[in-house]
Design goal:
Blueprint: E1 4-9, H1 16-29, E2 32-40, E3 46-47, E4 59-60, H2 64-92, E5 96-103, H3 105-113, E6 118-121, H4 140-146, E7 151-153, E8 166-170, H5 175-188, E9 194-201, H6 204-220, E10 226-231, H7 235-245, E11 250-254, H8 268-276, E12 281-284
Helix pairs in contact: 3-4, 7-8
């Protein structure tokens, strides 16, 4: 059950879909929302050109007075966002709590997420943090890496009156994907929702073997589901194609796959999916 949602607010209008999904999820699950405005500590750093020997740092802290002015300005903006969101929740009868914190975004979200069941992020709109060429803020990857809870990165267009009818669970046998099954079962366990298990494997036989424990897990929880084994070597392409052609409303997957460096580097499949699929994606680290 999803009892508490941590929503990380960004700039309007980028965070509109994330807010709408949080409203939708809170109503469906009877949840409360904790709205968090993050003031990135990088806002207090000023880039400089280093010396030829590389001795000089690439960033330095501005004077104390300037830092205080920047902090006051960013705090005012954060409070405006939080007050606006609190009013929106009150109109909908959704329990809501708000707070702002200053520091490293990934660390802040990691600590805050412990008290909640899921983290909701928009794809862009988080202040000074640069936006990649693919349209996903650089903020997203470290936030997912740091979070101990599943992270929902909302698609570009999600209306408050939308419905989640078709859930795709991309399962590769990793422990991250295995952890995501519990949330998939919770969200699929409602009338009118279909669930499909997908794996990409070098052969049908290997794929069926990978999916077997996931099928058992969902079956024991009474979740009716379909399964698909796609033979191939590029899971990200297969997943994106299914999302685009299969009318998928929600994609659930592990943030990392089978890789010896998955704890250090953000999963390449995940990055490709976020960059190329305009889908609502729940990622489990």
């Amino acid at each position: 059950m999803i009892r508490s949602i941590l929503l990380v607010l960004g700039e309007s209008p980028y965070d509109a879909s994330a807010k709408n999904f949080a409203f939708w999820l809170a109503r469906k699950e009877g949840s409360q929302i904790q709205a968090l405005a993050v003031i990135d500590i990088a806002a207090f750093e000023v880039p400089v050109i280093g010396t030829p020997d590389g001795f000089m740092p690439s960033v330095v802290a501005p004077p104390l007075r300037e830092s205080r002015n920047v902090l006051m300005e960013l705090t005012d903006v954060a409070n405006e966002r939080l007050n606006r969101f609190s009013t929106q929740c009150a109109k909908r009868g959704i329990p809501c709590f708000t707070e702002h914190k200053t520091g490293m975004p990934g660390d802040i979200i990691n600590r805050a997420s412990i008290a909640h069941d899921i983290v909701v992020l928009s794809r862009a709109g988080y202040g000074r943090i640069s936006r990649s060429e693919e349209g996903v803020d650089a903020f997203i990857a470290p936030a997912i890496r740091a979070s101990v809870r599943p992270v929902l990165v909302v698609g570009l267009e999600f209306r408050e009156d939308s419905e989640i009818r078709n859930i795709l669970v991309a399962y590769d046998g990793s422990r991250h994907a295995a952890r995501a099954l519990s949330l998939a079962a919770d969200l699929a366990n409602r009338p009118g929702v279909s669930c499909t298990l997908l794996t990409v494997a070098p052969s049908e036989e290997v794929g069926r073997e990978v999916l077997e424990p996931a099928e058992t897990f969902l079956g024991r929880r009474g979740i009716m589901h379909a399964k698909q084994v796609k033979v191939g070597s590029k899971p990200s392409d297969v997943i994106c194609n299914m999302v685009k052609t299969g009318g998928v409303d929600l994609l659930i997957m592990g943030a990392y796959g089978h890789s010896p460096i998955r704890e250090v580097l953000f999963g390449s499949t995940t990055e490709h999916v976020l960059a190329n699929c305009n889908a609502n994606v729940i990622l489990q680290s």
